[in-house]
């Protein structure tokens, strides 16, 4: 029985590698966006916490204002980074979807070709079995009715002696 060989296997492996690479890039950008979101949440909590605190001296108030300004700038910076990352996120997601679709097309073609291969193998096997049964039928059909095992042994001995 011959083995199944997919003619586009190298292309399928290449596309699988490209899909994994796109998936990794998409996962990386998703993780970076999550980190930025966590940073924004943390900075917002610190800002709210700092805004409700009271200061007793002028120096404490200046420090508090500087800290609040720093937190505001950090929040704005992280939001801008998030906007940039979200564009890249969309691009990476679309890239991943395209590469996955390309691979799945080849997978479906491979499955279809494999089913055809199995069907051809089954047909070939069935043809072989049909031929064997037909040969057995013809042997039984042309078999002499007065067949003796003795005669067969004698014929076998003579054939052996002639050789």
Describe this structure in words.
About 85% of the residues lie in helices and about 0% in strands. It is an all-alpha fold. The longest helix is centred in the middle third of the chain and has 84 residues, at about 60-140.
Name the poorly predicted regions. Answer: none
The biggest beta sheet is recorded as: none
Q: How do the SSEs run, as a string of H and E?
A: HHH
- Fold-level CATH name: Helix Hairpins
List the SSEs and their pairings.
Elements: H1 9-51, H2 58-141, H3 149-162
Helix pairs in contact: 1-2
Short description:
The protein is an all-alpha fold. 87% of the residues lie in helices and 0% in strands.
Name a few traits of the molecule.
163 residues, mainly alpha, Helix Hairpins, 0% strand
